[in-house]
Amino acid sequence: MFSAKTITRIAAVLSAVFAISLPGGAMAQGPDRGPTAGATPPIGQSATQEDAVMEAVMGFYGALEVIFSGETGAMVDIWSHADDVTYMGPDGGYLVGWDQVLKNWEEQASLKMGDKGASVTPKDVRIVVGQDIAVVHNLEIGHATIDDKDATVSLRATNLFRLENGVWKQIGHHADLLPPLVKAIGDGN
Question: In this structure, are residues 120 and 141 in contact, taking their beta carbons and an 8 Å threshold?
């Protein structure tokens, strides 16, 4: 069993949404096309809106890698800075507005979880694209080594993107609750 302190550290990794990279084998699925290989054209050269959204997804997960190293710049670039963005991590929190979301990313970056072996692999990526809104569902397989103990979890995640000035910007993230984390926070530990 992990201590409350260890659970809190693991939670920091998990609330960063677990991402180090989107594997080349990731799948995207549009409404009228079956699963397609995760390979995408160079940034800015998307053949379809689904490809453009997949680039945004990859950008988000790349930004999480940077968060794990202690920097927030890439995450600031990926997210919309609007008052209607939301972040609901595995700790049960519900943040609304760019100011609150940015503060959370800054707190996560300060933990430098990349130094502790944090990683996440998105799996079974599914994309639905509308005119200016895209919804992305996937599983996130997260791993970290905290206090010499390995922790692995699998959570469901939803990411939302909005087309702003021709660029898909992140406007929401929601991950499953992680019950041990919710309990530790609820107990004040």
Answer: yes
Largest Cα separation within the chain, whole Å, is 50
Query: What domain range is 122 assigned to?
Result: 4-186
Q: Name the more confident of 20 and 78.
A: 78
CA 88 to chain centroid = 10
Rounded CA separation 132/135 (Å): 10
The domain spanning residue 67 has which CATH number? Answer: 3.10.450.50
Question: Number of folded domains in the chain?
Answer: 1
Q: Which of 68, 63, 58 is nearest to 22 (CA)?
A: 58
Higher pLDDT, 40 or 146: 146
- How far apart (Å, rounded) are the C-alpha atoms in residues 189 and 9? 12
Which 3 state secondary structure label does DSSP give 142?
strand
Let me know how many helices (H) and strands (E) the chain has, helices first: 5, 8
Whether the pLDDT of residue 37 is over 60: the answer is: no
Give the Cα separation of 148 and 145 in Å (integer).
Answer: 6
